[in-house]
Amino acid sequence: MSKKPWSGRFQENTHKAVEAFTVSVTYDKRLYAYDIEGSCAHCRMLEKTGLISSDECQKIINGLQEIKKEIDEGKFPFRVELEDIHMNIEARLLEKIGPVGGKLHTARSRNDQVLLDLRLYLRDELGEIFQSLLALQEVLVLQAKKYLGVILPGYTHLQRAQPVLFSHHLMAYFEMFQRDKERFSDCLKRVNVCPLGAGALSGSTLPIDRLMTAKLLNFPSVTNNSLDTVSDRDFCLEFLSSASILAVHFSRMSEELILWSTSEFSFIDLPDAFCTGSSLMPQKKNPDVPELIRGKTGRVFGHLMGLLTVMKSLPLTYNRDLQEDKEAIFDTIDTVKRIFSVIIPLWENMVIRSEVMYEAASDEMMLATDLADYLVRQGVAFRDAHHIIGQVVGFCEKKGKKFSDLTLKEWRQFSSFFKEDIKLLLNPQASVEAKKSIGGTTTSQVQQAIDKAERFFKGERCED
Asked: Using alpha carbons only, how large is the chain's radius of gyration in Å?
């Protein structure tokens, strides 16, 4: 049985069941590169403050770099009895360079060490998620440009409502993902704070230089209160919350792709490479990818609710419950990245059935609001205009007619304000092009949104 760092106070070895119950190295080993990076920075700070010599510092750093190489090459001897990645690396360092390796943990606790690793890891992953969001937005804008003239029904309550440009619909998702980017960018501000130096909970009596460590690790600032530092998982909750909202957007998009791919809609044809068949029914082509994306949303939500539940009654400061943060973060990141890996090429390869969309958008009943607006332009109060058009709709349903079937005489049964030019409104293109208000579905407004997005992409790429 390996000796634990705290073994001096205990008379018994840790029970094997307890070791199995408390082990985290099976999943937190993905933090190894960040643990070594943080340890090297900490080591250099110890040297600068005179807590270790230059020779000791170099020996420790060389040993850490050798350990990183071992892990990179899959040759590192992970041991579950050492619980986590931090103790595994420390034990291996002692094996490689002897007692001087024990000086590395000077003025450091696992409490602030693990937080450092998690913040470094999450900082990098946030950058990757941001770039994936940018790539998805670019695909949506590319499709919006390609299909700018395509019209489909807009829906409320999943009932046909008014004609809109398909590109306008795509740019709605662009806006959703833009807010996601903003949330993750804002979350990064809370992630990107150096916790090292808080110690177990109260700081250190030794002459450490927290600002130096932060600078070496490219943190713009350090945490302000040691008690708060070691027990803070707000940045994890904020990330999980942002990821959950992103998952909502993925799920809503997936729901529409599922609906649109049905024979009842037939607005799109999903690529065969992103669908599966039935083991019983030879004709089936199932939208498994968007269905799984929709399903994985619950997984992301679960991690947020799980960590909220862990945190809700924890007193200051560190409690072992906090070990539950990492699996939630890791699985959420893995899930989101897997979704990106399929949803981007799915959009790149799906077939848009423009003619089917237009046929559905040609349902004249969706022009009822345009007709009410026509009366408003003649001076009729909107509520009165709404009532008049409602009567026209009822008349058409009773007679089995469309608006375009009505004669001017029939129109004027309901209002004398109707004139021959009413017929100019009775097509989806006219409806779309009339929506000129900022953010509306007219071609000029959608083109402006696309142009703005492309300028934004160029700016973001230049900042990379």
From this structure: 31
